[in-house]
Amino acid sequence: MIEIYGRPTAWNVRKVLFFMEDAGIPYRRIDYGRAFRPTNTREFLDINPNGLVPVLKDESFTLWESHAILRYLAAKYGPPGYYPGDLQSRSLVDQWLDWKLDHVSPALRALFMRHFLKVGEFADRDAAEREAEANRLFAILDNRLEKTGAYVAGAEITIADSALGMAVHRWLNLPLRRPNLPHVTRYYERLKKLPSFEKTICIGIP
Ligand SMILES: N[C@@H](CCC(=O)N[C@@H](CS)C(=O)NCC(=O)O)C(=O)O
User: Which end of the chain is least crowded, N or C, by CB within 10 Å?
Assistant: First the structure.
């Protein structure tokens, strides 16, 4: 049985759980991270020297970094469409996954720290710029969704949606000044109809 180490409240864990639930991949989750088992122990650092969740265990194989985990699971166990075999289709999925990690994650992390966790160092005078940067990024996503009419990489759901669906949920549920982005809103409504998304992403935490 595949094991996922990580608390169900962590957004990097939630995107992996969303994918596994959606793809029907059985797993056992073990609580690690803030408010659960500590990740700074020798035992945990042996499996992820960063002391972060999620971590995947598949028999004797260990993997960390949520997007590497998504790619691995989709390639090995997922129905083919989630991570297409065709190189160009797969590269588009990779493009949006990398964009999320490199651009969207840092922008949203700061806003989450400030508005939800209320971490003092994020209540700074750059707040308006951080908000504007997030709005700029989600406008890019809105344009993309207008073109595909459905999901990030095209007409079918992929692991890019596992990551960006989580990000959209966070952005729409933080107390921010947001432009009206109709395609992002429609995308979120579509995802919310999935029991997998309801179970893992819509858990009362942005
Ligand atoms: N780039 C890593 C980031 C992992 C990360 O930042 N995880 C957070 C939770 S979202 C964490 O472990 N925080 C410490 C904790 O929960 O104790 C990934 O995508 O997996």
Answer: N
Lowest mean pLDDT among 49-53, 59-63, 103-107, 120-124: 120-124
Domain end marker among 78, 104, 128: 78
CA of 18 to the centre of ligand 1 (A): 16
Measured from the CB, is residue 65 less than 6 Å from ligand 1? yes
**69 and 116 co-located in one domain:** no
Q: How far apart are CA 18 and CA 170, in angstroms?
A: 14
48 CB less than 6 Å from ligand 1?
no
CATH number of the domain at 196, please: 1.20.1050.10
Q: Give the H or E element holding residue 2.
A: strand 2-5
Residues 116 and 189 grouped into a single domain: yes
| pLDDT tens-digit series, residues 106-130 | 999 989 988 888 777 666 667 788 8
Of 87, 169, 116, 104, which is closest to residue 140 (Cα–Cα)?
Answer: 104
Residue 206 covered by a domain: no
Residue 18 contacts by C-beta under 8 Å, 6 or more apart in sequence? 162, 165, 166, 196, 197, 200, 201
At residue 22, the pLDDT reads: 98
Q: In angstroms, what is the span from residue 146 Cα to ligand 1's centroid?
A: 31
